[in-house]
Structure formats: C-alpha cells, structure tokens
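Researcher: I'm preparing a figure for a lab meeting and need a structural model of a single chain. I don't have an experimental structure, so a prediction will have to do for now. The sequence is pasted below. Please return the structure as tokens so I can convert it later.
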Amino acid sequence: MGKNREFCALILAAGKGTRMKSDMAKVLHVLEGKPLLHYSLKVAREAGATKIVVVVGHQSDKVQEAFPDPDLIFVEQMPQLGTGHAVMQARAALADYQGLTVILCGDVPLLKPETIRSLIHHHQETQACVTVLTTEPPGPHAYGRIVKNARGDVLKIVE
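Model: Understood. Here is the structure written out token by token.
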C-alpha cells in the first residue's frame, strides 16, 4: 500500500490581475465559459483534495458569490501583500489540519490532476520539507517566477 495521498488544497485567488488591464478579479475572468478559479477548484478535487481553502482579496465578495459551495473555506487577504502573505492568511483555517498542503494558484486553468498527484508522490518520496512545481516558459520576464540555483534549490520568488 502506498503513502497517503490526501491533501488540503490552498488556492491563492486574491490578485487584482493588473496585467489583464481589467478591474475584475483575475480569477473571475472567463475561459471556455467558466471563471479561471473553476479550473483550479476542479483539478484540486480531481487530484484528491479533502479540504479546500481559498484565499480571496480583490473583489472577494464577488469571488465568493461566484462559488457558493459550502465545502469551500474562504479566507481574506486584505491588503494584498504578495504570495507569502496570502499563504499566511490561511493559518487559522489550517490550524487543525495535520496533513499535506498543496498551494495552487487560482488562475492556472491548464494544470492536470496527474501533475498534482505526481508532485505529491515526489514530495513524499524525497521527504522534502517543501516541494515547488516550476516550469520554464519562453520570455519569463512577463511572469512571476521562481529563481533557483544550479542544484534546483529555490532562492527567491519574483512577483
């Protein structure tokens, strides 16, 4: 029998989406008829999340109205002071949770459940303190990015 693959999904959905040149909350922008956040919630559930905490901020009321699921736990990040600060806002919601937490972005619609399960497997097999899923897109300066050293250790997050 394999290791426990249950996890809590902590979905970061507080951003303004200024690069989108819109006042609408980034996670409410529609792709294929559904808000971006829909896809992050769906992939978290399909990957096996047993608890889902969503960090909201910009237009938090509209984001919560768009997703009235009673199983979702919403926490607010006001003001929005970056990714690390967003994660810290979930401390109280996760205080009683003893398992693995996977942090996802609410504006990444193409992530697959298999990728999350593979990430969890790798994390457990390597017994790492933290495991970060990264990619190397062309022209990375248009995106937030993770700066790593030659060994792959995370040095910093640039937003």
